[in-house]
């Protein structure tokens, strides 16, 4: 028999990548772009096949499959990746980054590369970060202009301990709800709001029910492109280089596309009658200080310190 | 690739003929073709896909709706609904055929599965039909087709399954979209009974004389009042989901609570000691469905890994890009699929294949879901593999072969209804739009 | 020998049946609790969703094993019923062998490897923090039970002189 992780150099190989986004998502476009670039660089000897829409399983299942080398690659948000690579919790800590520039400075630094490879022991080799913007609160009726506005509101969070702690620290009542139930729960007033980036807010049509969007930008949680360590170690240096280059180019491509999508989503949401606010963030930062303090002494606490040292760098 | 596909199809068909449980046929086909693709990790992957395939929160409404359906059938609610239908349509010999269909539709409006209607309604209406001179094959065929309306009229377990695979589709929108097509399906079955009736009445008249004195006229008000609690459940479940009180999963759990109180404390037809048996029966029925879901999830995974969905869509698109022809082609494919595959695996395997094509044609995923479900409802009644048919034969004590003749006019009527539903999107989409469940 | 097997089979089946009853009740109660915490207590529970999903995996798998014992899984007996006497028996034996092979290879074998691999990677669930291996454990346990039930059926098929078509309803 042949095993999934066998790679020889004589014949063309295909790296299969499964992800859970739809074909209209900027990351899918970036992955298709990467497949093209890889094909060109390797003159067709190393190929990538992108299988979208969660056909190969939801995010955590794909990560588990990549870990064991069943499929070669996947795209995963840093939030669910936390269940495999504890360091990823850093991206769920609110206001750990000063602003977008600081965020990218960290991702492109040695620390960013260190985090990308933090999953190697778990069989996950990170190739690049894709921009997933900043997550902000949106609510059915009451705008969130300061942390006190969150008091008593039921806010949907992703099923991760850090997300739950984050909303609790800000004063809201975190409610883990399956994403498939989110729209109806918002519509039915079962939930008061949720938090996500503008493109997700728009493409999932949450603007139909949530008319208040406050750009408080509490977390910046990137998507990671991950290749199975088993597959990676079987590629030769030349192939690894092609892959790394193609990944870097696709990340650049996606960042531009994401910027456009974000602007488009905000403009269109406003056209649909959504009020978009840009609240003063100082009060939010103050509010989460105890949460940030509580990480002191842990692995995540060290990461927070290192990241904050990079805030003032030029 | 071709070798994998060949292994897959050959092993599936061979095992199916051997009377291996369908879920095992699907699982073996998946693991054998995966073994040839990725080697000895295959069994682990299939085990993982099977387990994850059923550990899905939206599917949770299904066991609850099954428990509620059992409690309602055994707790006297089905009987009260039949009385109500009989009161509306009369107790004549001919009317009994319509009563059967209407009862199935009413029962379908409180339960999420068709087999529950076959056993729940069939168990009560069938003896009455035989007494009035209906032939066994005809009455079983009628009950079988009538029961499928319960899958189109909300709530519906298969719609939940569809919403899960389709991804961006809300269960509430699917439920609302099913109301009018479900009624159309029921009416087409009633019309067929009316059209077949002269033939039937001749057979029935001979026996009428002796059985007539037994039929008692029931007063409309009293029957309605007796059926009211059951009818109220329809309102609680549907209005609850649509009017913004709870999700489908929660509505199902509330339906269990309601049916439990009604059956155990109000009607007192279900004693406490009978509960373990009802729960066990529901649990096993759930497991039979979920094992099918699990195995077809494994098979769809293998298909996706080999990019079969993309190949099929491209193949179909190359054949024609005409809206009418393509929908016709898809419907024909699904009718063939439905003859030998159960509804759940068919939805799980074929929805991801067809959805990209139809959405590119501008067909709404909710509308396509209704088309697919109505189409596969026909498959539930066609031999050799038809769940409704199996249960109907069990309840009615008939052989599948005998049912074929009486089934034909009904299946034709269902195909006509399917065509109307396919080419008239507004019939499905008008209600969910009106209720603001979709754009 | 057969007698011992039958006793074991009966014991395991009773155990599984009660597990199914408890699990399906737990599922319904879990969702009702979710509704209560949200509407009455105004403090939505954080673990009901996850608990429900994982109980469902266990319910499906253990219930699957019970359904094998009760012969409730849907199959296509049309062609088999056309066969006569010994041919039908051979078909039944083959069919049981396929079930045993699948349950042993995929559910039991694949399941055990899955559990050990996932336990080794230390993946844990988000809200309850239980190891994912505990969720997947349902599959190999059910697989083992299916093997037991199917082997007993197979032995009966081989031992019993004249085999009628098995009854597809619970005893
Ligand atoms: Na229904
Ligand atoms: Na069929």
UniProtKB/TrEMBL annotation, chain B:
Pfam families given in the database record: DctM
InterPro entries, sorted: DctM, TRAP_DctM
Every TRAP C4-dicarboxylate transport system permease DctM subunit domain range: 10-427
Membrane topology type: Multi-pass membrane protein
Keywords per UniProt: Cell inner membrane, Cell membrane, Membrane, Transmembrane, Transmembrane helix
Keyword Cell inner membrane: yes
Molecular function terms from GO: transmembrane transporter activity
GO cellular component, one term: plasma membrane
Transmembrane segments: 51-69, 105-126, 138-165, 171-191, 227-245, 279-303, 323-340, 347-364, 370-395, 407-424
Signal peptide start-end: none
Primary location class: membrane
Record localization: Cell inner membrane
Name of protein: Sialic acid TRAP transporter permease protein SiaT
Gene that encodes it: siaT
TrEMBL record, chain C:
GO biological process: C4-dicarboxylate transport
Entry-linked InterPro entries: DctQ, TRAP_DctQ
Transmembrane domains' residue ranges: 12-31, 51-69, 90-108, 128-152
Topology in the lipid bilayer: Multi-pass membrane protein
Domain Tripartite ATP-independent periplasmic transporters DctQ component: 28-158
UniProt keyword annotations, A-Z: Cell inner membrane, Cell membrane, Membrane, Transmembrane, Transmembrane helix, Transport
UniProt record similarity statement: Belongs to the TRAP transporter small permease family.
Protein name, entry field: 2,3-diketo-L-gulonate TRAP transporter small permease protein YiaM
């Amino acid at each position: 028999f042949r095993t999934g992780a066998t790679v020889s150099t004589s014949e063309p190989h295909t790296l299969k990548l499964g992800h859970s986004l739809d074909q209209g998502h900027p990351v899918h476009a970036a992955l298709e772009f990467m497949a093209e670039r890889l094909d060109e660089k390797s003159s067709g000897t190393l190929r990538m096949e992108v299988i979208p829409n969660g056909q190969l399983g939801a995010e955590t299942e794909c990560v588990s499959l990549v870990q064991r080398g069943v499929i070669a690659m996947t795209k995963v948000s840093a939030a669910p990746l936390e269940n495999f690579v504890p360091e990823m919790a850093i991206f769920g800590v609110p206001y750990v980054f000063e602003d977008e520039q600081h965020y990218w400075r960290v991702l492109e630094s040695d620390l960013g590369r260190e985090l990308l490879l933090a999953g190697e022991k778990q069989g996950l080799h990170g190739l690049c970060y894709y921009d997933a913007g900043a997550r902000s609160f949106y609510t059915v009726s009451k705008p969130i202009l300061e942390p006190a506005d969150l008091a008593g509101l039921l806010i949907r969070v992703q099923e991760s301990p850090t997300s739950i702690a984050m909303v609790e620290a800000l004063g809201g009542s975190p409610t883990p709800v399956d994403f498939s139930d989110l729209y109806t729960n918002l519509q039915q007033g079962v939930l008061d709001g949720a938090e996500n980036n503008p493109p997700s807010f728009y493409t999932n049509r949450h603007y139909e029910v949530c008319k208040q969007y406050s750009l408080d930008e509490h977390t910046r949680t990137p998507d990671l492109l991950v290749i199975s360590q088993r597959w990676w170690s079987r590629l030769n240096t030349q192939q690894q280089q092609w892959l790394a280059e193609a990944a870097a180019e696709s990340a650049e491509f996606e960042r531009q596309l994401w910027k456009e999508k974000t602007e488009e989503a905000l403009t269109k949401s406003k056209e649909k009658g959504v009020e978009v606010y840009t609240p003063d963030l100082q009060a939010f930062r103050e509010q989460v200080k105890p949460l940030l303090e509580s990480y002191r002494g842990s692995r995540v606490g060290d990461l927070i310190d290192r990241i904050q040292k990079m805030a003032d760098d030029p | 690739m071709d070798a994998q596909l060949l292994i897959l199809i050959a092993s599936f068909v061979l095992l199916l003929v051997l009377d291996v449980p369908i879920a095992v046929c699907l699982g073996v086909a998946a693991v054998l073709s995966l073994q040839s693709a990725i080697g000895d990790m295959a069994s682990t992957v299939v085990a993982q896909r099977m387990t994850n395939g059923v550990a899905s929160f939206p599917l949770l409404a299904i066991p609850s709706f099954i428990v509620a359906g059992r409690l309602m059938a055994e707790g006297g609610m089905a009987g009260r609904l039949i009385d109500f239908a009989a009161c509306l349509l009369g107790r004549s010999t001919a009317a009994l055929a319509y009563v059967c269909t209407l009862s199935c539709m009413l029962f379908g409006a409180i339960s999420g599965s068709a087999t529950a209607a076959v056993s729940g309604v069939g168990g009560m209406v069938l003896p009455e039909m035989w007494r009035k001179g209906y032939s066994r094959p005809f009455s079983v065929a009628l009950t079988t087709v009538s029961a499928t309306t319960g899958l189109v009229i909300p709530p519906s377990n298969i719609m939940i399954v569809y919403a899960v695979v389709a991804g961006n589709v809300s269960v509430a929108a699917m439920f609302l979209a099913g109301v009018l097509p479900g009624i159309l399906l029921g009416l087409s079955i009633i019309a067929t009974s009316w059209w077949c009736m002269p033939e039937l009445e001749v057979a029935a008249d001979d026996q009428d004389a002796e059985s007539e004195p037994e039929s008692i006229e029931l007063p409309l008000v009293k029957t309605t009042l007796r059926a009211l609690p059951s009818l109220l459940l329809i309102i609680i479940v549907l209005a609850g989901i649509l009017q913004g009180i709870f999700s489908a999963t929660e509505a199902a759990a509330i339906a269990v609570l309601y049916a439990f109180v009604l059956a155990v404390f109000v009607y007192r037809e279900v004693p406490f000691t009978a509960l373990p048996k009802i729960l066990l029966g529901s649990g096993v029925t759930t497991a039979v469905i979920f094992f099918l879901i699990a195995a077809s999830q494994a098979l769809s995974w293998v298909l996706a890994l080999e990019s079969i969905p993309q190949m099929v869509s491209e193949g179909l698109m190359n054949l024609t890009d005409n809206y009418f022809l393509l929908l016709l082609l898809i419907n024909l494919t699904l009718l063939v699929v439905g003859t030998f595959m159960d509804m759940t695996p068919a939805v799980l395997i074929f929805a991801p294949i067809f959805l990209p094509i139809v959405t590119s044609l501008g067909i709404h995923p909710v509308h396509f879901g209704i088309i697919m479900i109505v189409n596969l409802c026909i498959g539930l009644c066609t031999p050799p593999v038809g769940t409704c048919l199996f249960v109907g034969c069990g309840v009615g004590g008939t052989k599948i072969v005998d049912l074929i003749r009486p089934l034909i006019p009904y299946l034709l009527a269902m195909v006509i209804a399917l065509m109307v539903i396919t080419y008239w999107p507004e019939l499905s989409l008008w209600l969910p739009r009106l209720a603001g469940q979709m754009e | 020998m057969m007698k011992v097997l039958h006793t074991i089979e009966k014991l395991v089946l009773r155990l599984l049946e009660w597990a199914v009853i408890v699990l399906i009740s737990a599922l319904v109660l879990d969702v009702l609790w979710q509704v209560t915490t949200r509407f009455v207590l105004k403090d939505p529970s954080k673990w009901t969703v996850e608990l429900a999903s994982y109980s469902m995996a266990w319910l499906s798998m253990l219930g699957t094993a019970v359904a094998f014992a009760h012969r409730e899984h849907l199959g296509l007996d049309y062609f088999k019923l056309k066969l006569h006497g010994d041919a039908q028996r051979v078909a039944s034996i083959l069919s049981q062998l396929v079930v045993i092979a699948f349950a042993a290879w995929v559910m039991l074998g694949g399941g055990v490897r899955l559990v050990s691999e996932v336990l080794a990677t230390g993946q844990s669930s988000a809200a309850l923090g239980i190891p994912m291996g505990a969720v997947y454990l349902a599959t190999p346990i059910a697989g083992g039970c299916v093997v037991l039930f199917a082997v007993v059926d197979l032995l009966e098929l081989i031992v019993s002189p004249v085999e009628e078509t098995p009854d597809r309803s619970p005893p």
